[in-house]
Amino acid sequence: MNLSIIIPLLNEEESLKELHNWIVSVMESNNFSYEIIFIDDGSTDNSWQEISALSNTNPAVKGIRFLRNYGKSQALHAGFKAAAGDVIITMDADLQDNPDEIPELYTAIKTEGYDLVSGWKKKRYDSVLSKNMPSKLFNWAARKTSGVKLHDFNCGLKAFNSKVIKNIEVSGEMHRYIPVLAKNAGFSNIGEKVVQHQARKYGKTKFGMERFINGFLDLITIWFVSKFGKRPMHLFGALGVLMFFVGFSFALYLGIDKLFIHRTGRLITDRPQFFISLTAMIIGTQLFLAGFLGEIMVRSKTNETRYTVAEELNTTILNEYSK
Question: What are the Cα distances from residue 85, in Å, to 5, 114, 180, 200, 304?
Fold first, then answer.
């Protein structure tokens, strides 16, 4: 199969049929073999009924419905596990991503040899103050922190070699950083393509300003995990040893001073250096223990239930991949 189109969604009933017809038109005009995987992330409207109707008329349409809203990362995780195409395309369901971009994205993966190609919405039809400016700041910070030179980490339109999506773990709210996860997994041939951004036609956006705050927090998390996730002792242990050394040095100085230099001077406990020494050694010990406990947790980590699949159409991930 040439292509798997993965579309996470939440309450997008008005746009699904139009999006489906648009994708099918592109697939047929380019003679692609394909599947369209809709992941209903706990919609409360008639989105699932629309997906079911599309599946009845087009066997290439597949659906996964979550029992409740778990977030875009979990939806993409389920879609990645179900995907069978050589090239995987992710896109949003709100018609702001243009399916006409798919052939060029496919060519970039199959012919040009990219592991991942991310869309860049160079011209956006969003509010300048509430979306465009915060997005530029967020993307700048992501580039500086991760080392991945992309202009638009948030763009939902991306193309992947199937090897990439089978070897990365998208969890929490890390869907923004899939290129970083791919790089950390060893897939360094990451490209970018300017794509057409379209104004929202139906409904309203599901994301507010809080997504940028969460994005920055996730950026710190992924930086830490990429550097110290497998060896937390390298960070906490080093900081702990440093703090303990500082505290011990103060304690040694106080002891030498009291025993050999100022024997009749004020009590050690009356000197501020004593409290600096005591605090530094306690913090150092705690940091070292945090690193030690982190090592134990990493080595004994087991899989947790990430989402619950309530219903499927033409897929078989219910029992195998709900964890």
Answer: 9, 16, 22, 28, 27
